[in-house]
Amino acid sequence: MKIVPSGIKGLDTVLNGGFNHPSTILVAGTAGAGKTTFVMQSLVNAARMGETCLFISAISEPVAMMEGFVSSYSFFDYSLLEQKKIRLFNIEKDLLQAGTPDVILFIEEKIRMYKPTWLIIDPLTVIAESKPDELDKRLFLFELLTRMKSWNLLVLLSGEFTLESLEKSPLSYLVDGILYLKEEIVGEKSERYLSIIKMRGKKYVPGRHTYKISNDGITVFPRLLPAVEPERPASTKKVSTGVEGLDTMLNGGMFKDDVILFSGGPGTGKTVFGLHFINEGAKKG
Prior knowledge:
This protein has 285 residues and is an alpha/beta fold. The protein has twelve helices and 13 strands. It folds into two domains: 220 residues, P-loop containing nucleotide triphosphate hydrolases (Rossmann fold); 46 residues, no CATH class. The chain has a nine-stranded mixed β-sheet, with helices on both faces. It has a two-stranded antiparallel sheet with strand order 1-2. Strand 9 and strand 10 form a beta hairpin.
């Protein structure tokens, strides 16, 4: 297993280097959160780095989508399509309404033909929702995700979910990783947050990370974690306070490296205690 860049600026810091390859990653969120932008940006940057990429769409003609909103981003590079570094396919409505094996066979046929190293399915939830009942949806997802384990690819899946519906979905335990994108309206401002729900086999920065969508695509701003001070053993060496009788009460003085507070009201001798301590230390060099 290797680690490959996500293609999303700032995200690799959160992911501690990038995505595991092979693995299956779900990019989940509500409508308008940027899921399709996310997977397309990852795909284009992967192709630019020499990966062979396959994009399968379930809701629109992918070439039209590429030439439409995706081409408005600065990361878009049409030459990658011309060089066949990115191949685009659409799952037709008739195929969606067919049985589970037909959809999976369609995907596997494209994998055999073009031997990609990256696969994007956008959005997987539309394919699952085409199944007539809940049991069929679950069986489809289980069969598809089980097959994915044998493909030896990095698979990015997009899906429309709330956090509540994600918890109930079989995808939550079938995939290797889940990134959740969310847009919140705060007053008159729109705030966007990315969270990693799970990422098997990887350390990552937990919590919510802000992100923005601009002409350059998605940029993630990792939240800062406090620096962890190195652990050090407690001192066993004692030093004198310089105050007669106090060292006896403290069984030899105060531990070296300790921080001690002398507290009391005005005129009780706090400063005098401190002067005794400094004087004792100066005498001992």
